[in-house]
Structure formats: structure tokens, C-alpha cells
Amino acid sequence: MTQSVEIICVGTELLLGDILNSNAQFLAQELAKLGIAHYYQTVVGDNPERIKGVVRIARDRSQLLIFTGGLGPTPDDLTHETLADCFGVPLVEHPEILEDIARKFAQRGHILTANNHKQASLPEGAEILTNDSGSAPGIIWQPLPGLTILTFPGVPAEMQRMWREVAVPYLRSQGWGNTTIYSRTLRFWGISESALAEKVNSFFDLQNPTVAPYVNHGEVKLRVSARADSTAAAQQLIAPIEQQLRQIGGLDCYGANDDSLASVVGALLKTAQATLAVAESCTGGGLGASLTAVPGSSSYFWGGVISYDNAIKVRLLNVDEHDLAEQGAVSHTIAKQMAEGVRSRLGTTWGLSITGIAGPDGGTADKPVGLVYVGLAGPNGVQSFEHQFGALRGRTWIRNLSAATALDHLRRQLLIKLE
């Protein structure tokens, strides 16, 4: 039977959404690097009975339970005492932990209080999982044959250091993590999840590597994961599958892993020794923000105009007042004129524009909320593209999708020019 891990995050603040559960994300990624099977994650509040209920379920389906949170000195920090109660053992105070806490407090000008004695009390038989950054130690404990429990504080920086410096060496010494799971994520724009899934359906039956689709903020991704003895070996398994998926995806596949549309467009502009200026209306600077988020973008992105008011479109972008009155700001004609205007005004190779109705108000029967036009002016002329993003997902969704889609239009044109 494959040994598996369960991550259990303790804290009512997590259930309330007051704190983002970054610990679970970190641990999941680390377990994948170690090649350790990980099938379940649980979040439970600061309640001993519910924590015990979670433990009873987890110990029957997983061989390694990783806890985060609930190790502090306050009354709602219940992880260690609840684990001790769950397995019927007493808590034992460790003087060396109190000495360590006192020393750390003295360095910071703090005084040890009675509450800190709680942090020095661990379930009988548990080893100390040292915490060099904070006051709360964790435990390494085998309360039953075939079951190991690791506990960590909820503070991400402390947990991550303890994981890398203490937990990983321990797990490797116990035979965990002798393989690795490596993943490559291919990124697609301009194709729906269902359309892409139909094209690559046969790949979903693969066992090693595996291929899985998912959607995030309008983007479709294919995650290709392989298990092997090393990262290099896993990469070799993934490489031919990635090549096939890229060929099937064609222009819709724009990159992998940490690539963004903005970074890919930037690289293409550099290759072409071209420059870009933008003119934005409904996105209010979002397009420029995504471009400048890429380090080194000043070498190809010269600037832009946020022409939110029609008067600015006329004064700065040379948009025709008659066309504005007759066709409206949200139209093919105005998108083209905005792109041409900013290209001419800033003297760049390319001009990219966005004009649309982000809502929630301002839509009509002819021009509903979510209607967006993208203009693209370049060495061979100007063109525009109409998109209907719909109103259901709201203003932010429309604005973000508009900026990404504009970048994608430029990306495709640059690829054609570079062929």
C-alpha cells in the first residue's frame, strides 16, 4: 500500500477566512518535491472534540499526519494537549524547552510567563521538533505503529524553516521522500477548457506522467506531473508529452510554469527589437500595470494614456469627435483610433488599446456590460477585435480579462511577424 500524508491545519481564523492558508500550499508543494503521496487536507477550528474527530478519520487513511497551528501559549492553542488526550497519554513538561524560550525572550527583552509552560508540555513519548525562530516547538511522534505525527506552529516563516531543517531530514531517514514528483504547467489563452480537453482527451489516461486540466482567471492550464527517482528523470518523462501537447495547442499555448502573457509579450518585443505604447479606457491602467510588473520592461514598453474621459481620447489620442458622437467610445472605430493615436503620439512600433463597458452600469441592449474592443496598430496597419465577456462575473473580471486578451492579440501578431 502506498504511504500517504494528510495535512491538518488548526485554527478558527482559517475557517473564518481571516488568514490565507499558505501553510497548506507550502507543504503540498514540498511533499510533491519529495515524491510523497498526499491525498487529503483538512482545516479544523480550535475545538478539541472536532480536532479529535479529524484525527480519528485521518489515522485510518494516512500514515503521516502533518499539523500546523495551535502550538502557542493561549487557551485556544490546543493541538498538543488534544493529541495527547486522543491517544490516551499524559503531557510531559520539558525543562529544556522552557530554558530555550526564556533565552529567546531575554534576547528580545521579554519576560517568560506562566502561559509559556504550556508550550513546553508535549505528549509523552514525543520527540521535540526544534524551532530556532520562535518559541513554540513541534513534535515528532509515533503514537501507534505505522502512524507518525509532525506538528508545526502556524507562523509560516517558523514552520517553513522547521520543515526544511528538521522535518525533511527526519522523513528521509525514515524512508519517506526517496522519489520526486515534478510538474510542468502549460498555459493556454484563447481556447476554452472543454475545447482543449477534447483535443487532448487521450492524454488524461496516462499514468506516469499524468495530465490534468484546470482553469484560473480565464486561462486554461494543463499540469503534466511525473514521479521518478530524481527531478532530471521526471523531466525526461515529461518532455515528450509536453512537446506533443504544445503541438496540439498551437498558438493557444503561450508558455509554461511562471510565464505570463505580459512576460511572453515582452520577450517577443525584445526579440523583434520593437516598442509598445498602450491606450486604456475601461481597464484604467491595468494593461500598463501588467506590462510593468515584468522586470526589464522599460526596454520595450514606453508608456501609455489612460483616456477614461472622451475629451482625453480627442486631445491626446486624436480620436475623431464626430466618430465618437456617432459610434460611441465602445466601438471598432474608436479602438482603432486609440491604438493609432498612442502609437503615433509616443513613437512606438506598436500601439495597443482597450475600450469597453466594465459595468456594473452603463450597458444597453446594443452594447451590454462586458462588451470590449481591442485595437492594435503596427507596422502593417491597424485592426480591432470585439469581445463579449458577459456581466455575470463582475467588473474586476471584465477588466482583467480585457487586459490579458489585449496582450494575447499582440502576442499572436508578434509571432506572425517573427516567423
From TrEMBL:
SUPFAM superfamilies: CinA-like, Molybdenum cofactor biosynthesis proteins. It comes from the Bacteria. Residues 6-174 form the MoaB/Mog domain. Gene3D superfamilies: 3.30.70.2860, CinA-like, MoaB/Mog-like domain. Transmembrane segments: none annotated. HAMAP family: CinA_B. Belongs to the CinA family. This is CinA-like protein. It comes from Stenomitos frigidus ULC18.
